[in-house]
Design goal:
heterodimer, A: alpha+beta, Alpha-Beta Plaits, 4-stranded antiparallel beta sheet, two-stranded antiparallel sheet, 6 strands, flat, B: mainly alpha, 19 helices, disordered C terminus
Chain lengths: ~140, ~425
């Protein structure tokens, strides 16, 4: 299964404080482990929300909001995409990650939707497939 | 932590550590079967101890130490037996501890390539290709015998026996589980790449049974390819193979329609291609080419797959480049199947007659005599050349040769479409 691993922001990351050389190295070693285990698909770090923008939707309305955004601990400072067997494996890998921030911090793991997850739930894609199927059958 | 939850966590740790642990142990005891048992014992010990004492800070080191203790116990017991069997009066008490010292040295010599050593051993040329694939999936992939049997539509006892025999063969061969060097490494690497691509292809184009794709095998082969690329970052063909698999796998969900029928590349909904895998594949191909490996067989096949991946619409496909790449591939990897695909590329680049002309050259190849894709391609060229009656015969021939139920239905569908009064083009 594919998961997105989100490194949450802190006051430091939002202030643009750069990690120490030691942390860079530790993170490099961790990434190396992920690569050698065939787990890491991609990943990157994000600049502070002061350099970000939001677009708020309300019906036809679109409002652009400039960063920084207030709810620091809910913001994302970086991410990976991993391929793992299950959530338990993802959790074990995250536990092995060096603390990405100076103080207390959080990493969140979110699985991607996959076809096998849908079961009986009808998604737009399945609905479209069903539509095409009906179209083909009725044309015969 | 609930019992089942901690159990699952320990299983996850074991899954992460298992291949490396077996690799270390195999190097130490020179026996993959025993190494696997020792690893399993260590896991069982962890299952009973960790829920009480907590998961150790470095679980990998803990498992290794536990397995190592057990290995040394076994060695001592063997030595005791040997001593009992020895002649009376012969002094064996001062048998030096070189055996144990060797074990200590092997376990401490963690140069990081033990996993690679195990991969090379599992893909050793003394084993049959089927045995190599089964052993690789078992030891490196961590698949159970049952999972391997299911993936290969085989019975569990058959696969179990194949693995046991493979382990014995390796034992007799007296392998050191070291990573081969120099020219030997290059030859052995070719076998490793072949095994991984065989596993991928078994999943990608299932040769028998009802399912055309068994995604679990593709995913496992991709993981093996990624691991190998992480362990051998300087071999262009490793990246060529990885690129080829990533790009091909990017189309997995688009390859079948809702009824499970195959959708040809040119008719696939390209918005369903996995962009992340394409990006990874193109990056791996770039790396293979930067390392001077553009003309490697896997890199060339990856370059072919990349031509399709780069075209956002089928009309943008650079068929002339594809035809040229097939000319190159034919030179380094001569095969009737490559010739057949080259004919398809020529038909797209220069018209159906160009394809038919190339097919005439390979028509009599013994290897292609019962190969369904040959008449299927011929039928396609004939139909496009406005000769539906002849095309129909070819599609029917292809359907009769196909071993895959869904593919057969697809080909019969194409044959049926030829009989319409107009040579209406369908997929």
């Amino acid at each position: 299964m594919r998961v997105m691993v989100l490194v949450k922001a802190t006051e430091d990351s939002e202030a643009g404080v750069m990690p120490t050389t030691e942390l860079f190295e530790a993170m490099g070693r961790f990434n190396d482990e992920l690569i050698k285990a065939g787990v890491l698909l991609t990943g990157d770090g994000l600049k502070p929300s002061s350099q970000g923008k939001r677009v708020a939707f309300d019906g036809p309305g679109r409002t652009v909001i400039d960063g920084p955004f207030a709810e620091t601990r809910e913001l994302v400072a970086g991410f990976w995409v991993w391929e793992v067997k299950d959530m338990a494996e993802a959790v074990e890998w995250v536990k092995r990650c060096p603390n990405p921030m100076f103080g207390p911090s959080e990493i969140e793991i979110r699985p991607f939707y996959e076809m096998s997850d849908f079961g009986d739930v009808v998604t737009p894609e399945i609905a479209e497939q069903e539509r095409q199927r009906r179209e083909r059958t009725s044309g015969q | 932590m609930a019992a089942t939850e901690s159990h699952r966590a320990i299983e996850a740790i074991f899954r992460i550590e298992r291949a490396r642990l077996i690799a270390r142990l195999a190097r130490m005891v020179r026996d993959v079967g025993l190494a696997e048992e020792l690893a399993q014992d260590a896991f069982v010990t962890a299952l009973s101890e960790w829920p009480r004492a907590g998961v150790p800070a470095n679980p990998g080191a803990w498992l290794t130490a536990s397995a190592k203790r057990r290995a040394i116990d076994l060695l001592r017991r063997d030595r005791m037996l040997a001593r009992k069997h020895a002649e009376i009066g012969r002094d064996l008490t001062d048998v030096d501890d070189t055996g144990i010292a060797a074990i200590e040295a092997a376990m401490d010599d963690d140069v990081g390539d033990e996993l690679l050593g195990l991969i090379f051993a599992a893909c050793h040329p003394v084993l049959s290709p089927e045995a190599r694939a089964a052993l690789t999936l078992r030891l490196i992939g961590g698949l159970t015998t049952e999972e391997i049997a299911r993936a290969y539509l085989s019975s569990e006892p058959t696969v179990a026996q194949r693995i046991v025999r493979a382990k014995k063969t390796l034992g007799k061969a007296g392998l050191s589980f070291e990573v081969p060097r120099g020219q030997e490494r290059r030859e052995r690497l070719a076998s490793v790449l072949e095994v991984i691509y065989l596993i991928f292809n078994e999943g990608y184009s299932a040769t028998s049974g009802q399912d055309l794709i068994r995604p679990a095998l593709c995913a496992e082969a991709q993981r093996l390819g990624r691991i190998l690329a992480g362990l051998i970052p300087d071999e262009p063909e490793v990246f060529g193979l990885l690129a080829l698999m990533e790009i091909q796998a990017s189309r997995l969900t688009a390859r079948l329609d809702p009824d499970g029928m195959p959708v040809p590349l040119t008719h696939q909904n390209r918005s369903r291609w996995d962009r992340l895998l394409i990006r990874r594949g193109l990056a791996a191909l770039e790396r293979a080419e930067a390392q001077g490996g553009a003309d490697g067989p896997y890199a060339l096949q990856a370059a072919l797959a990349a031509c399709h991946a780069r075209a956002n619409r089928v009309e943008e496909t650079d068929w002339r480049r594809i035809a040229g790449l097939y000319d190159q591939l034919r030179a380094v990897m001569p095969s009737p199947v490559v010739d057949l695909n080259r004919a398809v590329a020529y038909s797209m680049a220069f018209g159906p007659e160009a394809g038919l002309a190339l097919l005439d050259e390979i028509d009599q190849e013994a290897d292609l005599r019962n190969y369904a894709p040959l008449p299927a391609a011929k039928g396609d060229f004939l139909l496009r050349a406005g000769r539906p009656a002849e095309a129909r015969v070819q599609f029917e021939r292809a359907a009769a040769l196909s071993l895959n139920e869904r593919e057969r239905a697809f080909l019969l569908g194409r044959a049926g479409a030829c009989s319409g009064s107009d040579a209406k083009q369908e997929r």
